[in-house]
Structure formats: structure tokens, C-alpha cells
Amino acid sequence: MDADAQLESQIARWRGYVSGHRVISPLDVDEMEGHLRDQVEDLSAAGLTSSEAFLVAVGRMGSVDEISREFAREHSDRLWKQLVLVPAGTESASGRHPREMGVVIALAACAGVAVKAGLEWLPEQALVRNASLFVLPFLVAYFAWKRDMPVRAAAALAIPFLLTASALNLFPFVAVGSTEIIAAIHAPILLWLVVGVAYVGGEWRSQRRRMDFVRFTGEWVVYLTLLALGGAVLVGLTLGAFGALGVDVEWFLEQWVVPFAPPGAMIAAAWLVEAKQEVIENIAPVLTRVFTPLTVAMLLALFVASVASRSILGVDRELLILMDLILVLVLGLLLYSISARDPHAPPDVFDTLQVVLVAAALAVDALMLAAMLTRIAEFGFTANKVTALGLNLVLLVNLVGAGWFGVRFLRRRCGFDAVERWQTRYLPVYGVWAAVAVVVIPPLFGFG
After folding, report:
1. Count of Cβ atoms closer than 10 Å to residue 80 Cβ
2. DSSP character for 348?
3. Counting beta carbons within 10 angstroms of the beta carbon of residue 109, is it exposed (0 to 12), middle (13 to 18) or buried (19 or more)?
4. What whole-number distance in Å separates Cα of residue 140 and Cα of residue 68?
5. Shortest CA distance to 402 belongs to which of 344, 323, 338, 447?
6. Quick check: 80 pLDDT over 70?
7. How many other β-carbons are positioned within 10 Å of the β-carbon of residue 98?
8. Cα–Cα distance between 335 and 339 in angstroms, integer?
9. What's this model's pTM, rounded to 2 decimal places?
10. Residue 254 has what DSSP assignment?
């Protein structure tokens, strides 16, 4: 490739990266590219090669994130205008399609219809068991459409849903058994990774794209929670207002709002995360810095209380389940923190706090493993105990790896990319474990 062609290729890649920041409009990018070319020309005239001139010019223009923040300060009105519908016949700098809102509404309505049909036609037990199959396929459809996935690749994503649906509905579960609950709990975890494959446009082997999905998951949970809280307030005010007028609207809320609102909120939350991405600052850095020290304090207090009680080996099943949920929460917070961090920044106090968080979680996990093994030795294996033990071992390995790479990063023995790589490469392990819980554990324990 000659020098001119190489320079044009470098500028095209730079332009594509800058265009991904929604605050910066195409006209802004054109202006920035003009300045970049002027600097490259001046530097080339001074004796630099085109590649050297490009690198120096980009460095002089500053970090794209800094440029984005500067544009946000100068053009704050764009932040919110770009979250609404794109005018007909246009397309945003990041590729948002003008029909996207219509697609989101249609998919949310389809998810609501699926839930409504399930409520009408399925018994309660089957409804709960198949809950993840009512909404997640429509999230997959949204991202497959959004990422312009090939039809064949998008259709292949239906296979895990069909296999999961077959297992959930063809297995002869005992009426009041544990394995049915285990399968119903783990099915959404397995299928959420299928959503992840659609989110990354099939690029699941890419570490960067996996971390993007982790980041999306955290933001999606935050937005879904906000929508749920806002919806609850709206429903409460509606009931109160109509009740004061003597009009009964509970039947309408039960028959139509309840089936359609939750699935609609799940689709809408995904769209909102996509719409605001790179427009306004992510909420992840704020949340992680607030909740990480609080979680560390909670884990240390829990560890001290468990040791002081001297009865950790005789704890009941409910406490073990709560402990597992706490460890899952810690892992989610850890992933969220990693996804929100600048990978090029040097170690700081917050990174030390992250290692302390992992150490505290490992201490609690060790206690829980001791309690579980004691209960298994005393009462034997059951589906619930095997599931809890397996989950704890999966979490233990992840936490050990996170602690190892975290300490190495603090000691500057490795870069932060090693911390990210450990977590992104470990994600499929959760999918494998969820598949085992759905497909292997029920027949292993006679579907009881």
C-alpha cells in the first residue's frame, strides 16, 4: 500500500471511531477531519512520513473522549435531542436507523402478546418455568436487526431457545420438585448469553465486544430498575386518582398493563441504553464508586458475624441461598466496575478497594463452601445442594482469578487488559454451568 492510500485508510479508521461518539455530529467530524488533514500536511512538509505525521496530528488533537466531553459542554442540547426519534429519511452518525423506534415498539408489543398468551393459556407452574422464553427472543431479534446480522446467523440464535424450551417442557418434572425450579432459574442465565451473541453482532470471540456486553448488561439493569420504579409510581397514582373518582380500573391494570408493561420495559431499557450510549456519561462509574466500599463493609461484617456465631457449619439452607445471592451481587459489581474503568489509567486507590472486595468475597465464599460440604457429608447429595455447590465453585474460581490479576495489576506486573481478559474469557463458563443446571441436573436427580 502506498503512502497516500495508507494515510487515507488511517484517517478513515480515525473518522469511524470519532463518529461513534453521538455528541459529535457528522458536520463536526468533517470539521475535525479538515483540521487533522491540515496538520498532517504541515508535518509532512516538515519532513515526517505520512504515518508519522498522522500519529503526531492525532496526538495534538487530544483524546477522543476529551473531545466528546468538550462537545457535550458546548452543545448540551444535543445530548437529549439525540435520544429521541431520528427525523424521517436521516440516519445518525452512529448508524441509528430512522425506523428504530417503530421496531422497538413492535417488538415490545410482541413480547407483551407472548406474555398475555402465556397468562391465558398456561398453568401457573408452566408459566413461571417458561418466563425467559417470552421476552428474551425479542431482545435477540432487536439486536440482530440493529447489528444487521446475516439472516442465517440470526436464525441460528433460535436454536438455543428451541433446545431450552424443549428441555423445560418435555422433561417430566415432579409436581413439587426442586429440579424444575433449578432449571427455571438457570434458563434465563443461559439465554442471556445468547442475547449477548446478538448484541455483539456474532463477534463473541472479541474480548472488547464481550466487555461491551458486560457494560450493556449493567446499564440495562439500571435503566430497567428506573423504569420499574417509575412505572410503579405511575400505577399507584393512577389507581389513587381513579379510586377518588369512584372508577374501578384494577381490572384493566391486571388484564392489560401487567402483561404488557414488564416485557415492554425490558425492550425499552435495551433501546435506551443503545440510544444514550456515548451521548451522556455512563452511570456505571458513579454506582461502582458508591456501592463498592459499602459492599466491602457488608462482606466484612458478615464474615465477622459468621465466625463469631460459631455455628456457620450448621446454618440452614435459606442462609446459604442468601449468601450465594450476595456473592452473585459482588461478582456483578466487580464486572460493572471493570467495564467502567479506563484500561489505560494507572492503578489507584479504587483498584486497591476492588482487590479488598474480592478478598472479602473469597473469605465469605470459603465459609459457605465449608458449610455446604458439611451439610452434604451429613445429609447426602440433593439437587439443591449440588446446584449451590456448583455455583459456589464457579464463583470461587472466578474470584480467585480476579484477585490474582488484580494484585498483579496493583504491583504493575500486568496491564489492566489482563484483568478484563480474565473476566471476558470466563463468561462462557456461566453459560456452560447454566446449561448443566437446565439439562443435566434434572434427569440426574429423577426430575424431583
Report:
1. 11
2. -
3. middle
4. 30
5. 338
6. no
7. 14
8. 6
9. 0.77
10. I
